Records
---
Amino acid sequence: MTRGEIVLVVAGAPASEDDDAEALAAASTLQVLLQELPVSQAARIAAQLTGRSRKELYERALALAPPKPGE
């Protein structure tokens, strides 16, 4: 008898309204934090508060962050 490996690929669940609400809450949290903190620190704290990915929030924070003076 030959033994082998098998791969099973399962698709993720479609986005729900709860995901949209969570994304809006995360963006709102980031906007508040960015008024007082640097981008990396705001993303880290927002990730802790919302449970979302720090990387995802960092990328969003870069888009939301106000430009630095002189740029």
Note: The two ends are 68 Å apart (CA to CA).
---
Amino acid sequence: MTNELPAIRLRDFAAPDVDAVLALWRRADAVARPTDRPDALLKRLAHGDDLFVVATADDQIVGSLIGGWDGWRGGLYRLAVDPSVRRRGVGTLLVREVEARLRRAGAERVPIRVFFGEPGAVTFWESVGYRPDRDEAIFVKDL
């Protein structure tokens, strides 16, 4: 990518995007998760909603964000922005888009998981209005 940022377009994730999104996550040094696999992304796609959004520049995927909605709360997962276009508003565009979709679905609260091992993550999420919830802790069990 050049210094001049091509027009950013947001669209729904689609099956042909699987390899490009996984490659983006690697380029972005996202903390690896057990579900970073093609079959897991296709399973997410089969869920049938429009909450998995990708950002493109010159038809290349340069950002992604997965939203979730369980009828009670929204969630944001796996925000990744290509290092070549960081600090140019791509992450903020993705967050605002998925928040709007969650709001339309009825979400009133959006908890997120922020990995302390991802440089800049805490600062970014605070910059778009999120804050640590001192009353909750995340517990996890791999199945």
Note: The mean pLDDT is 89.
